[in-house]
Amino acid sequence: MKGTLALALFFILFASCDSANNQHPSAKYEEKKTSLESMEQDSPLKFLKVKGDFHRNFVNKTVIEGEITNNATLVSYKDLQLVLIFRDEKGSVIEKQKQQLDNIIKPNSTEDFKIKISHVKGANSLSVDITDAKVNK
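-> structure tokens emitted (137 positions)
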């Protein structure tokens, strides 16, 4: 009786292991990967974050330094369009400038950047936003 029970249990275990190997998880994985890649290509701004700060150097230039983080899993981005918004101490916008960064930001990475522009008089704070990016193929 115990031998028959053990033999039946062995066949059930063997059959369940075999059926798991007959499934093709790689096909489902590839489908999910393609879907994720498509989403990352269609919506780069959802996966890119930027932060930065500024200071004036001794040759009277405004130097913006910051970092861009790419949270995408599969896609690299390039030709990032930035908008720099300078504000005075009351929070009023003094000046807006558009800049393009040619850096390639790889998936799951952070890249530093530095931009030098003519001095922005009266600027007390800076906000940096990404308005566009292209997929690096």
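The chain has two domains: 2-39, 44-136.
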